[in-house]
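= Tokenised fold =
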Amino acid sequence: MSIGENIKKLRELHNLSQKELGEIAGVSDKAVSTWEKNEKSPRMGAIQKIADHFGILKSDIIENKNIVSTINEPQQTYGSDSVPMPLLGSIAAGIPIEMIPVKEMINVPREIADMYPDAFLVKVSGDSMNKVIPSGALALIDPTEEIKNGDIAAVSVNGYDATLKRFYKFQDGITLEPESYNPNIKTQFFSSKEQEYNPIHLKGKLVWYMAPLDIKF
């Protein structure tokens, strides 16, 4: 069963309306409707709230299983060691995270998923941060974490796809600093005046990364 089908079955088993389930998940009834129609996927934070409310695992909702049997089974104390998290496509400026299509779900360690329930994965392309994170790695980005000077963030400039850079905000502008072995990649500075026509969009903070399953050594 899909995530949407599991959510609908769970709601119907407990005789809840879409509005009542939305209140549990912290969303509107329209959002619940789009989930059940498989038009959109819920964020991990919403899935966690639903799972916590009904005393089940997030994986019981996310994975392709019959949630009826899951609810009737006694919950094990150990559970799974990994949790699926969304791998997103391109992160364009101005588009809400909820509107970006999920390409696939990737398993990450449960400890990481529980620590950052609203985070999402993106595939790193390019060598601008290869002293810290290699090209091809899967970066976990949390849009809810506060981004401070010196943090690595997913940043979109003037509508282009997001890039990972160290972020520094000063009184007169913003600096995006690479950490690369490639000497041709330079630090970028955007003055406050320049940002009026070349806006900077922060998409989230880098909190963790992993090698893809198909990495070549």
About this structure: The chain is about 25% helix and 25% strand. The longest strand covers residues 200-210. The helical segments are 3-13, 18-25, 29-36, 44-54, 58-62, 67-72, 110-115. The CA atoms of residues 155 and 163 lie 5 Å apart.
